[in-house]
Specification:
Blueprint (H helix, E strand, L loop, with lengths): L13 E5 L3 H10 L5 E5 L5 H8 L4 E3 L11 E6 L4 H13 L3 E4 L12 E5 L2 E5 L6 H14 L4 H10 L1 H4 L6 H19 L3 H17 L6 E6 L10 H9 L2 E4 L5 H4 L7 E4 L11 H13 L3 E6 L9 H10 L3 E5 L4 H8 L14 E4 L1 E2 L2 E2 L4 H4 L6 E4 L5 H10 L7 E6 L7 E6 L3 H4 L7 E5 L5 H6 L7
Parallel strand pairs: 1-2, 1-4, 2-3, 4-5, 8-11, 8-12, 9-10, 9-11, 13-16
Antiparallel strand pairs: 6-7, 14-15, 16-19, 17-18, 17-19
Helix pairs in contact: 5-7, 5-8, 7-8, 11-12
The structure holds S-adenosyl-L-homocysteine.
Pathway: Porphyrin-containing compound metabolism; siroheme biosynthesis; sirohydrochlorin from precorrin-2: step 1/1; Porphyrin-containing compound metabolism; siroheme biosynthesis; precorrin-2 from uroporphyrinogen III: step 1/1
Family: Belongs to the precorrin methyltransferase family.
Keywords: Cobalamin biosynthesis, Lyase, Methyltransferase, Multifunctional enzyme, NAD, Oxidoreductase, Porphyrin biosynthesis, S-adenosyl-L-methionine, Transferase
Length: 460
């Protein structure tokens, strides 16, 4: 990030715009939304600027810029649309102590003005550091469409109510009050105008004053396989509301980014056979934060109910008397099989599918290898890398065909996703350069079209 986004307080501050053409008019339209004291220096000012000056909205000096014009200005714009004249503005205004923007000249600008979605006092600023103005416009259009026009009114009325809401205990109760206002009661009342919004706030405050201070709540949330687009809406909402997020090693950083900015983020990474936080410590951590009245999100890769040691955590929560809920996620097997363009079950081929783990707490996990060795069986094998040679031996011993296809999908759904198409006979070799989390899809080869479509490495 080369440009640090800030919102500048402009009340009673001076701003200089040098130039009087279209670029100056466009900037002035924005600046006039603020309460800044605006000066325009321009030998030839467009009629709009003259009209604004006549209406007392800005001060127009009808000449070229001179040294001292930008004294006491916080910011200055070079808007001549002329490189030489704007270069002069840059020099003069910077010497006067202002920071300078040259319109449409990123390289010479000391700051840039973002694209803006205006629901005053809610203002969304969008910047791409000059990299993709078209993208910025698209994001702006999307936000314009999704942010209701009444949002500004809700925020304005909400602001006047902040003092009144301070009677609520700080922390979770107050946050719940404001969430209920902005998510439900406010939008419901917004159509009927300001008085209705105020009534809704009064009623809401009453009900929150009388509510008992609720104990904490723990959401056991599936973060999916890595791609944030594969998060459920409910998972996103939980992340939006969380006070504390306790996550696994495999949860992608892009997903943690979605947590509420003020949330405490705790890495409770556990690695099979490697250094790990013990399950007891994790249980204690979740319970501790829950008992403090926090909204805790226990964030697990994939689906929390698949190889997630969920029951141990639920037992700890029950023992502590804490309220909990499971938010399902897309498990790695589903993401992996989508990648190879196959189906986990298929009429006439396999009417059941197994989810297996390659190892458990005691080491390599024993499974019903004889059943899996039969023709046309399909299994998604989690945590199977280290146990691969051992599983291969078991399966071959029980009569599995050495040519049985196995698709190893590494980092499924992430940008570094890789497919290794192999067979039971060559499985351990195919795994030699797999370093990320991988699911072994036993009995499934990548579908030809999927191979052609994705550009992943196919190691045969
Ligand atoms: N609850 C998780 C599984 C946790 S066990 C789920 O439902 O997906 C950890 C194992 O999951 C890893 O060893 C790997 O086998 C698999 N895994 C998790 N994320 C993965 C990903 N993005 N791609 C491939 N395998 C993944």
């Amino acid at each position: 990030m080369n440009h640090f986004p800030i919102f500048l307080a402009l009340e009673n501050r001076r701003v200089l715009v040098a130039g009087g053409g279209d670029a100056a008019v466009a900037k002035l339209r924005l600046l006039l939304k603020t309460t800044a004291r605006i000066t325009v220096v321009a030998e030839h000012a467009a009629p709009e600027i003259v009209a604004w000056a006549d209406a007392g909205k800005l001060n127009l000096i009808p000449r070229a810029q001179e040294p001292g014009d930008a004294l006491c200005c916080v910011i200055a714009y070079g808007a001549h649309e002329d490189a030489v004249l704007d270069g002069r503005t840059l020099q003069l205004a910077a010497a006067d102590g202002a920071i300078v923007n040259i319109v449409d000249d990123l390289a010479r600008s000391q700051f840039i003005t973002p694209a803006i979605v205006d629901r005053d006092p809610v203002v969304v600023a969008i910047g791409t550091e000059g990299a993709a103005p078209v993208l910025a416009r698209k994001i702006k259009a999307d936000l314009e469409a999704s942010l209701p026009a009444g949002l500004g009114l809700l925020a304005r009325v909400g602001k006047t109510f902040r003092k009144a809401a301070d009677v609520l205990p700080m922390g979770a109760v107050r946050r719940r009050f404001w969430a209920a206002y902005y998510n439900e009661a406010g939008p419901r009342a917004a159509d009927q105008g300001e008085a209705a919004i105020r009534d809704a706030l009064d009623t809401l405050l009453e009900s929150h004053l009388n509510a008992e201070t609720r104990p904490g709540h723990v959401d056991l949330v599936g973060a999916g396989p890595g791609d944030p687009e594969l998060l459920t809406l409910r998972a996103r909402k939980a992340l939006d509301a969380a006070d504390v997020v306790i996550h696994d090693r495999l949860v992608a950083p892009e997903i943690l980014e979605l947590a509420r900015r003020e949330a405490i983020i705790i890495d409770a990474g556990k690695e099979g056979f490697g250094p790990s936080t013990s399950q007891d410590v994790i249980n204690a951590l979740i319970v501790e934060h829950g008992l403090r009245g926090h909204h805790v999100v226990r964030l697990k890769a994939g689906d929390p109910t698949v190889f997630g040691r969920l029951d141990e955590e639920i037992e700890a929560l029950d023992a502590a008397g804490l309220d909990w809920a499971i938010v399902p996620g897309i498990t790695a097997a589903s993401a992996a099989v989508a990648t190879i363009g196959q189906s986990l079950t298929k009429r006439g081929r396999n009417g059941s599918v197994r989810f297996l783990t390659g190892h458990d707490m005691k080491g390599f996990a024993d499974q019903d290898w004889a059943a899996l060795a039969k023709p046309d069986e399909v299994a998604a094998i989690y945590m199977g890398k280290r146990a691969a040679r051992w599983m291969q031996g078991r399966l071959l011993m029980h009569g599995a065909a050495p040519a049985t296809p196995v698709s190893v999908v590494e980092n499924a759904s992430r940008s570094d996703q890789t497919i290794h198409a192999t067979t039971l006979a060559t499985l351990p070799d195919a795994l030699s350069d797999v370093s990320g989390p991988a699911v072994l899809l036993f009995g499934l080869a990548p579908r030809a079209a999927a191979q052609a479509l994705t550009h992943e490495e196919i190691a045969l």
